[in-house]
Sequence to fold (288 residues):
Amino acid sequence: MNDLAVQTDTQAIVVDEVFPHAPATIWKALTSGDLIARWLMAPEGFEPVVGNRFTFQTTAGGKWDGVIHCQVLEVVPCERFVYGWQGGHAGNDGYGAPLDTMVTWTLTRMDHGTRVRLVHSGFVLPKNETAYRNMSDGWKKVLRNLDNISAESHLYTGGCACGAVRYEINGEPLFMNHCQCRDCQHISGTGHGSYLTFAGDGVKLEGQATHWDIIADSGNVKTCAFCPTCGSPVYMTFAANPGVFTVHTASLADPGRYQPQVVTYAMRGYAWDHLDPAMAKFDKMPPG
Ligand SMILES: [Zn+2]
Ligand SMILES: [Zn+2]
Fold:
């Protein structure tokens, strides 16, 4: 949908769509430079902080060098993001005519997603006719990209160090823990293993891992998967609980997403393996 909101002497481009992603997922795509580069253009000097100045480089034309100068004006996490968008040169008519506009993103949580409303306002007609026309189509495409990038950035992806074994997981972790049991110490080569456990039905695997089994303290069989080429431990599955899939934290493409909740088998932990004392610790596994 794309309607034209008429103001006194300026025009705005309005694109209003509902995407099947959480506001936080879209917010991340809107406000991280690496992701903006994928759905719009690579920003230079971008920080999602009020007052930050950043630029985009687009095609130069006439006397205009093609640089779009932006400044962050408002940041309300997961709700509202506003920046100024200026470009053009006084010596240009048509393409590259002086442009002094504002881009406003508004996110509204819906039952099964987020309403994304983009308003690019301040086009003065007829001076900015070319920009207005080009960007009316442009923003519609950009929003489709934003939808796709949001969908991708939502997945948990990762794999082994050499890249031969890879996974893609759709869904949020059910459980995130550090485990100090003897098996995890052996597998990690240090004081504990760090894991994210997901529902298994959202998992796609690529490449052939080598598997071996451990009988856990509980008597249950844990199947450990590692890459036969580089040796990295990648994931674990459990015969007694086939619905879950556990990955080693460092195998994630973005291990920064790990937010450990608890320490398991703390009774086997060594004093030198110091973990956040504020985290809940269980001698073995948490009950249930
Ligand atoms: Zn590998
Ligand atoms: Zn363990």
